[in-house]
Design brief:
It is a single chain. By secondary structure, the chain is α+β, with helices and mostly antiparallel strands. It contains 8 helices and 21 strands. Strand 7 (179-181) and strand 8 (186-188) form a beta hairpin. Helix 3 (93-109) crosses helix 4 and helix 5 (219-243) packs parallel to helix 6. The longest helix is centred in the middle third of the chain and has 25 residues, at 219-243. The chain starts with a helix and ends with a strand.
């Protein structure tokens, strides 16, 4: 089989997650789509002794694009030469430490409560996550991490941080996104998607972390790559729902597409309306054309609000998409709110890009900022009225 056939034949079985290995096993032996597992240990003693009473608990789940968080040391197998002290960006250890401190501060401030689960993208490796969690703003928080190396040519990966006293990751998978360049007759390497199954305060939840292919070369020319990534995400989510239609799934990421682009609306099949909206429409005699998923940030985009800006236009590439059961009263977790975290210090204060996200790099110039994206988040309410005792 030639490499083209191999790239095109990679696919995800519909029952793939039912075969997922336990955290103690080597997932590389169970599926060709899984690389060496890197996940910090399960719940600590604090969680095991935790009791949750009848009062609804509010938690935050967030996503943040870290804007090229690279370690200054050169990795010979990655195209990271610019992000070294001798490279074009003059990426010194001092700049790296300043970037880490800034990102840690921003993360600790997301939402009304510190995020229980935080999806990340544009990070080089596991080392930068370790260094991030050592920063003063995060060092006292019981964050664990989940990370796999991706084949992306830029050398950036996705990852997940989780509070060990809140979330117990039971299974994780790194899922390849097979792409092929027909013109150059060769495979294209992009970021893998990260699937995590776990218990959030004892209640099952799934998280899929994405960083879809960029718009490099133009939106239309690159659209097929994001459509391919969207099909992988949709296949994963549909597989989980076939196994258990009551699954609560969070799809988050930098999709490099807006909520109204075909990859989101037609492939993922999300909309700005939740199940309650469709029930109201049906009661009023309107046609009920419910989408498969609910995008609570889409209405913000329709109002001209975004998470990043380019040429004085706002885009909402950073999104959190949910199964409709997050809007029902009978589910474990119910959506309370969704927002873009736009603290004043995350906004460029003056100059040509005033009002844009205050980024760390502008070209090869270190700006001392944070990221070219604002983080996005949702808050959830735990709905059950029974006390939970962890085993």
């Amino acid at each position: 089989m030639n490499i083209k056939c191999l790239a095109l034949c990679l696919y995800l079985p519909l029952n793939f997650f039912a075969q997922a290995p336990s955290p103690g096993n080597d997932p590389e032996k169970s599926t060709p789509l899984t690389r060496a597992r890197k996940v910090d240990t399960p719940m600590n003693a604090e969680f095991n002794n935790r009791r949750i009473g009848g009062v609804a608990q509010e938690i935050t789940i967030a996503f943040y694009n870290l804007e090229n968080l690279f370690h200054p040391s050169d990795d010979p197998v990655k195209f990271d030469d610019d992000r070294t002290p001798e490279g074009a960006d003059r990426w010194t250890y001092e700049k790296y430490q300043a970037k880490l401190a800034n990102m840690a501060k921003a993360i600790a401030d997301i939402g009304p409560v510190i995020p229980s689960i935080l999806g990340l993208c544009e990070l080089e490796n596991r080392q930068v996550l370790h260094d991030l969690l050592r920063q003063e703003a995060l060092s006292a928080i019981d964050y664990g991490m989940i990370h796999y190396e991706s084949p992306d040519l830029r050398g950036v990966d996705v990852g997940l941080l989780y509070r060990k006293s809140h979330f117990n990751p039971r299974n994780t998978r790194s899922i390849a996104v097979p792409l092929y360049d027909e013109e150059k007759d060769k495979p294209l390497w992009t970021r893998d998607q990260l699937l995590v199954e776990g218990d959030l305060f004892g209640k099952p939840i799934y998280v899929i972390v994405n960083h879809w292919p960029s718009r490099s070369g133009g939106k239309q020319r690159s659209a097929s790559r994001r459509m391919s990534a969207a099909k992988v995400t949709k296949r994963v989510a549909d597989s989980l729902l076939r196994i258990n239609p009551q699954s609560q799934i969070v799809i988050m990421g930098d999709f490099n597409d807006n909520p109204d682009d075909p990859s989101i609306q037609k492939v993922i099949q999300s909309s700005a309306y939740d199940s309650r909206d469709y029930i109201r429409n049906s009661a009023q005699g309107a046609p009920n054309k419910g989408a498969d998923f609910y995008n609570p940030l889409e209405k913000m985009y329709s109002a001209g609000i975004g998470s990043l800006a380019f040429r004085d236009q706002w885009f909402l590439f950073d999104q959190i998409i949910l199964t409709h059961n997050f809007s029902t009263k009978t589910s474990n977790w119910r959506l309370k709110s969704a927002a873009i975290h736009k603290a004043n210090y995350l906004v460029t204060p003056h100059g040509r890009f005033k009002g844009y996200p205050f980024r760390s790099m502008q070209g090869s110039k270190f700006m001392g900022g944070f990221s070219d994206h604002f983080p996005v988040y949702i808050t959830l309410i735990k709905q059950d009225k029974e006390e939970y005792h962890a085993d």
